[in-house]
């Protein structure tokens, strides 16, 4: 489908976009109307032989790996609808998403943490979904619940054996995330720990790497997106979710703002998004997009 037709789709939704434009007149860096859906990752790269027009029919997104599950499904849906469109996503953490957006190396940046005041001033901001950061352990532990203070002691290595929590006699292997990942920043903010305080046994990158480490190491503990933890449990990965401060790690508790470690997921752009990025953003506001978010175990923004 030609890009003009896709742009026409955008203008048929002006009743939604008008809200964004009016708010933009009030504040320099506006939050657009909450998105009820997701984005899209489809790691299909252009090879040779494409026309110059086809090469422009793409949306490039970089940033938070937390958003990959939604990005993939949304990208596949859009590419079926628009055969010339390619939605490309490169993960690497929220820090990469912000840096690439600032230097205009992408169409949209994916960010899985709250934005700073400077970032809000620089970017157009699109809230997409709510997510929780879950505490997971290897399924070999018989621990069901921890407190935030327990987490502080574990990650400082003040407690090193699950017996201290009336669990099995097993050393605790601390899995931490590497710098540049928003999940680390959200975890530090909640626990009020400093990076230098954490004594890690294993350092992993994205959520899937943390899950793989915890699944493979008896007695290990880590923290990841609730959405990805639930997906891993569904395919029988040997991990389990831990209650935190007496609250069960469920999507309903994330939605009701009861889960202690909760965050908003964003897409950002520097200036007005490109035409095809706007097509993607319109899709994210649709009922179909909202359903994709739910199926990926995230909470749409209502």
UniProtKB/TrEMBL annotation:
Keywords: Signal. It comes from the Bacteria. Residues 52-288 form the PBP domain. The keyword Metal-binding does not apply. CDD domains: PBP2_phosphate_like_1 (cd13653). InterPro entries: PBP_domain, Phosphate_ABC_transporter. The keyword Signal applies. This is Phosphate ABC transporter substrate-binding protein.
